[in-house]
Amino acid sequence: MVRMNTIVNGVRIDREIDANISLLDFLRDELGLVGTNRSCDVQVCGSCTVLVDGLPVSSCTFLANEADGAQVETIEGIRDTEFYRRAEAAFVSHAAVQCGFCTPGFVMTLKAMADDGVGAEEAQLRRSLSGNLCRCTGYRSILDAAAEIVSDR
Amino acid sequence: MTSPTLVERKSLHGAGAVGSSVARVDAIPKISGTAEFVGDLSLAGMLHGKVLRSNVAHARIREIDTGSAEQMPGVVAVLTGRDLMDIDPYFGHAIRDRPIVAIDVVRFVGEPIVAVAAETEAQAEAALLAITVEYEDLPVVASLDAALAHDAALVHDGPTRSGFAHGLGELPERDGNICYRYGFERGDIAEQASLASIVIDQEYDFPAVYQYAMETHAVIAHHDGDEINLWANCQHPFLVRAEIATLFGLPVDKVRIVVPFLGGGFGSKSYTKMEPITVALARKAGRPVKVVNRVDESMVTTRRHNMKCRMRTLATKEGELLGRSVEIWLDTGAYADNGPRVTATAADAASGPYRWPSVEVQAHCVYTNTGPAGSYRAFGATHLQWIGESQIDEVARLAGIDRLEFRRRNLLRPGEEVRPGGRPLDADLVGDVEKVAAAIGWGREHITDRGLGISVGLLAAGAHPVSSASVRMDADGGVVVLVASTEMGQGTRTVMAQIAAEVLGMDPGGVAVHGADTRFTPYDRSTGASRSTTVAGKAVERAAREVMDTLIETAATFLDVSDLDELSASDGRIWCGETSIGYAELIAKRFGFVGGELRGYGEVKPHGGGGSYAEGPVFWEVCVAGAEIELDRDTGMIRVLQTSSVADVGRAINPQLIERQDEGGALQGIGNALFEEMLYTDDGVLLNDTLLDYRIPATEDVPEKMTCIIVENEDGPGPFGAKGCGEGVLAALPAAIVNALADAGVPMTELPLTPERVWRQMQEIECQE
Lengths: 153, 769
Hints:
The structure holds 2 protein chains of 2 kinds.
Chain A: E1 2-8, E2 11-17, H1 23-30, E3 49-52, E4 55-58, E5 71-73, H2 75-78, H3 82-93, H4 103-116, H5 122-128, H6 140-151
Parallel strand pairs in A: 1-5
Antiparallel strand pairs in A: 1-2, 3-4, 3-5
Helix pairs in contact in A: 3-6
Chain B: H1 27-31, E1 47-53, E2 59-65, H2 67-70, E3 75-79, E4 90-91, E5 98-99, E6 105-106, E7 112-118, H3 121-129, E8 132-137, H4 144-148, E9 178-186, H5 189-195, E10 198-206, E11 218-223, E12 228-232, H6 237-248, E13 255-258, H7 275-285, E14 289-292, H8 295-299, E15 306-315, E16 321-333, H9 339-350, E17 358-367, H10 381-399, H11 403-410, H12 429-439, E18 450-461, E19 467-473, E20 479-482, H13 492-504, E21 511-513, H14 532-559, E22 567-570, E23 573-576, E24 579-582, H15 583-591, E25 598-604, E26 619-632, E27 637-648, H16 655-674, E28 705-711, H17 728-743, H18 755-768
Parallel strand pairs in B: 1-14, 12-13, 16-17, 20-21, 27-28
Antiparallel strand pairs in B: 1-7, 2-6, 2-8, 3-7, 4-5, 9-17, 10-15, 11-12, 11-14, 15-16, 18-26, 19-20, 19-25, 22-23, 23-24, 26-27
Helix pairs in contact in B: 6-7, 9-10, 10-17, 13-14, 14-15, 16-17
């Protein structure tokens, strides 16, 4: 067990955790933040993307312990932001969501892209989103929504 | 008594709910992460289950030692085959060949042998490590060639037990490792062969493919002795209910299945998968148990059939088609799963939608010691269309006829027979293929290292046409549609809301559609085979019409109108000229005080006959696509520059959702065509069982241009002339890509078109020249 002191979605968390627990398990099982989804478990699909100190990470392969002293943001924590309202509107109007399993992960990656000032050029969007997989949409609608989200600020 | 309220009428012709791209009703919960998947749920006292799986492909089980595992911290129950002695523990809707956990024998790497339920997932995992299994190796047949060899070891040696829901008539006796056969013939192929001057005769290979629904299989089960409750991400809850009831000896009403949102299906969650083992474990534990697969476990739970095919196409030198003979061998793995149906559908797709004086098709479903293969979007058609269409291209080339013109001359026309005894063609294929060809610039000058391809095919769609639904209008005028179609991304809840709203003359926003709960939701056979809009949607339309009839009848009484034709519905009100009355008010009138509700019920059943597969399908789903590719001659790498596809949907309920279906199907088609392939060793070990090694399309694989053309001829059997879509492009696009590559000079007989495979073929062609 190790002591973990972190801020998740603005709330201070201070508790003993297993040293080998992943951030994904910590968020889902210990904090009940189930908007972050598990799929590939090997840092390929991006379903479990959260922000640690503003940077997108695959929480399936990120030890919770490594977030000690850091700020963690999940989909639950950004719902009240202006960014989220913009993202939601773009995903809805482009119907860029189908089964929805990958969607929160895409939104979190887009949050980091928007914060980082990534441009709306197609090639740049494809590169920046290449770590998020979606099996339903074929990506076209997500790329179109993404262009709107990152350019409209 | 109040007088009718005066309001301004907004729409004169119904609600216009059908035909408009209304926003998905489930978009916001999914974007915000509040949509619930099975993995997000938990019950009081719930345990976590983990499965010990075989690490050999074929062996007798000598001994299982679970002694120390049972003593591990947190462990509540350890399930082996010995715990199933009081029931008939075999399942399988097509062939009842699969034990809940291995009994005496394991037949593939990954087959469940023991399941453990513990207080935490980590404790269950730890307990698995303390279990030892002693095997006595049996000969392994891990490929079609091995399983079909003269003296091949048998994967199953008992008689075939027919499952309860295959719809394929009486199953033939097992013949060696061949568990099912389906075929048909017409005309005299030997006679036609004597007239042929063009004969294309080739063997082809199609790989095993993983559906990769991003959410893996997940089940929560509670067995309290005389009732089973399940939360499962299954596509066909009512078929799973029947199978669970049979397995555990309960009446169907004692088995309840609740289906929340599915994180993708694509066929991987069709029929029964992880439900029996979870129920058996919960039965032993006496507490609710949750089992969530990892990706490597879901990869051995189901996959797409790999296939070998030999096809021969006969034509005169002028390009007149004379006949086609096809032999198909599909590898269904160690258990049949949906293999027999896939086999029949593959045979149906084999001849292609052409006018043949003679056809002969024989398809075989073969057991091997690999993970079971079942449904994956556009099964059968994806397997065969690239083969049939590459031979059509070759005939056109040898006869010196443009490939589009060749199809114009030879494609079936609406009303013509597709296969003996089945539904005649119900679509305009010539019109469809002309559209996809035009979209990719057909007829333009040839560009070096680029190729254009088109393809046309049909997919037997609709499955067994049995669906029912009910529509409830609450006292406030709000509407709830009870329909068991599983929402797995395709947008069925949105479409059902639109159908009900159209009939009821109201905004789709006022219609709620929930997931299946078999305790309350009317029976629906399944969600798959592009059937929900067409079949379940028809049931919803009928149910809504019953509610509308009641509204009209009530309004007629209240407004004192005797000719019902004077009444119409829109904007949530019944109108008579300029006078109108709202639905809530009508319900209050009908029941005299607060409360009450209106109910409508609708059902769909086969027209005459038994609705058997032979008489089907419900409709022919059109599989038409075009592609332009660029070939890198140094590496064999292919880039798909543009794609086009037709969604021939009869009537587009929601055009935007249709386009999204085709875009998603197109990317799966690119994956299937270019790089997706499950690789097995001769010992039956799956080599690429993670997303690190099994690549699926990502953002960088999206073609620069994708065109989806929606065709609305109102010729479907569904509501408002609709018919299903979403699968066709997955069958059609790989075929168009193969044909585009042949157009660039590299014909291929093996998928996927990896750079290595393409490069080797280029070297071979060069050597021959």
